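Quick start: what a row looks like.
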Amino acid sequence: MHHLKESNLEVQSDCESCVNLNNRSTYFDYNEAFTVYDRIRQPHGLPTILNILQQSAVPLNGQIVLEGGFGTGAYLDRIKHHVKMIYGVEGSDQGYRQTRKKVGKAANVHLQIGDILRLSFADNFFHGYLVNQVLHHLDRKNDFQQLNVFLSESYRVLKSGGYLVINTCSQAQLDPEQGPYWHYEYIPNAARAMQRQFIPVKDLETRLKSAGFGEIGRIIPDGKIFQQEYYENPETALQPEFRQGDSTYSFLTADDMVASNDRLKKAIEDGSVYRVMRRAAERAAEMGEILFISARKLSQV
C-alpha cells in the first residue's frame, strides 16, 4: 500500500547528559508524575499501533520509527521488539531516565531529550511517527497553533507513504457525565478544562489534510488505559499517586481537591459510586477510552 524509501542519513545519537529543553506539558510537570505513571497506567492500544504500521509496504521489522513524547517508555519498550530501529524524543528528564532503564542496552533504541516542535532529524527519515496522549499538552493558544507546527514537523521527518499515528481522545470520551472515565464525574470542572485541551477530532483531521496527509482513519481500540484496580476499587481515585499520575487533577485548586475528595468519599459510603462506575464501564464498551487517528504522508510530486 505504501511505497517507502530507505535513508542512509544519520541522526543525533543518544544523549545521556542532555539539557532539559523545558518541553513539558503547558500545564503539568511530568517529572513528578512519571515517578508513579507505570503503576496506574498501561500502554493501551499497542496492537492498534502495530497494525497501522504493518500497512506499510516495508515489513515492520525493517521499519525505522519515532515516538514523540515517549514518557516512561511504556509503548516504546514494547515496540522495540517489532521494528528495525526506534527513536524517541521526550521533554522530561525523569521520563528519559526511566525509559533508558527500561530499554537497557537495546541496540535498536535511540533516545534523546528534545522538543517535538523542533525535531533534530533529517527530512524523510522515518517510516512511522507515533504520539501517545501527547498533543493535548501543547499550547492551545492562537487556535492550536503549536499543533500546526507539530504536524508540519511530522510531515517533514516522515518518508513518503509513512504513517503518523496519533493516540488521542474525542470530546465525548472526555465528558464528565457521559464519558467512560468514572472519576471525572467527581471532578467535572477539571474534566471540562481537560476537554478544552483536546482539539476536536474533525478539526484535527482537517489540519492533517491541510498539512499534506491523506488516507486518514479512526480506530477505537479495545482495552483499558488504567490498571485494573481503577475499574474495581473506587478508593483508587482517592490515592495521592493516582491523582499525581492523572494530569486532569492539575486543573483543581486546593479547595476543589478537598471538595472532590468529600464527594467521592460520600459516594463510596452510600454506594452510589458503584452505579457511576457501572455506567462508565458500559459507555467505555460503546465508545472506548481512547481514539487513534492514523494518517499517511502522501507521495511528493
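That is the whole record. The chain has a mean pLDDT of 91. DSSP finds twelve helices and seven strands in the chain.
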